[in-house]
Amino acid sequence: MSESVSIIGLGLMGRALAETLLAAGHRVTVWNRSAAKADDLVANGATRAATAAEAVEASPLVIVCVLDYAAVHEILDPVPLTGRVVLNLTNGRPAEARETARWVAERGGDYVDGGIMAVPQMIGGPGALILYSGSQTAFDRYEETLRPLARPHYLGTDAGLAPLYDLALLTGMYGQIAGTLSAMALLRSEKRPLADFTASLLVPWLSAMAGLQPAWAAAIEAGEHATEVSNLEVNRVGMANLVHAFAEQGASLDLLLPMKKIIDDRVARGHGAEGLSGLIEEL
Ligand SMILES: NC(=O)c1ccc[n+]([C@@H]2O[C@H](COP(=O)([O-])OP(=O)(O)OC[C@H]3O[C@@H](n4cnc5c(N)ncnc54)[C@H](OP(=O)(O)O)[C@@H]3O)[C@@H](O)[C@H]2O)c1
What sections of the chain are H helices per DSSP? Predict the structure, then answer.
């Protein structure tokens, strides 16, 4: 079913959202602070709003995807929101999302927050995921409209949940990037080729290790950190070896050094027999 959707913010991500909703057959109205970014979309069938107020007026579903929440407030502050669903796909923090949900509700609108787990090129493709939280009525009403953008995952009525889970997933990603870059630095210390190492060894290794993580989650939820694999004392020695090796090879382990300190501290507190999941107690 064709729906009217307005999109405010036509940066890299907003444009990808608009293109995908247009291609799915929706009636898309667009507004961006720098108007020229709407030109291609208008040539492809979108309607240009002259102001943000005009964009909000044009559709019951208003998607906002701009730099930050300060920009969201700046744009929507002077605009009536009565009867509108505001879907904010701008990256932010749980506290900002909760405050914005209250602010939109006070002004007569319904609020859904979203976290986009994709780069713009992935929008509309099979690997894209969008986390949603906030008004369940609004999410249910527009779930199918939004589905062409990415697989939807609704987390609950608390608007802060989408950014909370978004930040948790990004945190996991940064940890993986830190390990990958450090591994590459070590190989580069001996001028070893990186592409084959990454594709044939590192990625399969990381995938195999990722398979253990649901068991860690269960251990953490149970508060039960006994292990029959490698305990913290073994990892303390392993980490010291890693630090020594990196120094000898002239590479930096700075991205991972905080983990060494936390392992050392945990062992010093008498928990050397625990598994790595026990480190959660230090976090
Ligand atoms: N790109 C990604 O891979 C990615 C992935 C996931 C989530 N996101 C999130 O999506 C959001 C947008 O990202 P993006 O990649 O589209 O960024 P971008 O290309 O830098 O675009 C930023 C957008 O915000 C607008 N903007 C900034 N300050 C504004 C203000 N004070 N008033 C009005 N408009 C303002 C810009 O308008 P002008 O064109 O006028 O400057 C532009 O439309 C961010 O929250 C980002 O974290 C991005």
Answer: 12-23, 39-43, 52-58, 69-76, 94-106, 136-146, 161-188, 194-196, 203-210, 213-222, 232-249, 257-268
